[in-house]
Write a structure and sequence with these properties.
alpha+beta, Nuclear Transport Factor 2, Chain: A, four-stranded antiparallel β-sheet, 4 strands, globular
């Protein structure tokens, strides 16, 4: 009987790693990170906050509930109009996810942004690195540390219905 139990344990131990590997979702390609970020920025630029929220990292969705996110983001618009958005580089990286202690494998997408300020002749131009993290086989975006803190403290929620 002990031998049968031992055989079952060995067989189970050998099968578990193979099963875990087969259920693991594929990491999206690095090339798709740039397209994902372009889509995310377009949705936000168009004020499509509910659609942008659906692309948010799942842990951040639990902190920034969709109704709160849509309300908060729609009441705090960007201060300047987006003129252009150009991806400069994309690379694999370990990413700090606000709210988590460990680094998560992901991607860094560096972009050049032009914002209209006092008309098209005086744009504000800067480069910025955005971080993406895969979840469920596709890229997701992250709240900044500042926005994460706002949602974690429930500082931006709709007023209760009277």
């Amino acid at each position: 009987m002990k031998r049968l139990v031992l055989i079952c344990i060995v067989a189970l131990a050998a099968a578990l790693p193979a099963q875990a590997a087969s259920t693991r979702t594929a990491t999206p390609s690095l090339a798709s990170a740039a397209d994902f970020l372009r889509t995310e920025v377009r949705l936000k630029d168009e004020g499509r906050w509910a659609d942008a929220w659906r692309m948010l990292y799942p842990y951040h969705q639990r902190v920034a509930l969709q109704s709160d996110f849509v309300y908060c983001e729609s009441t705090s618009p960007f201060p300047a109009q987006l003129q252009s958005f150009q991806v400069l580089s994309t690379r694999h990286s370990l990413v700090h996810v606000p709210g988590l202690r460990r680094l998560v494998p992901g991607a860094t997408v560096t972009v050049r942004v032009d914002l209209a300020w006092y008309g098209p002749r005086d744009p504000i131009t800067f480069t910025h690195a955005f971080h993406l993290v895969p979840a469920n086989g596709h890229w997701t975006w992250l709240l900044s540390p500042q926005r994460f803190a706002i949602y974690a403290s429930a500082s931006c929620t709709p007023a209760p219905a009277a």
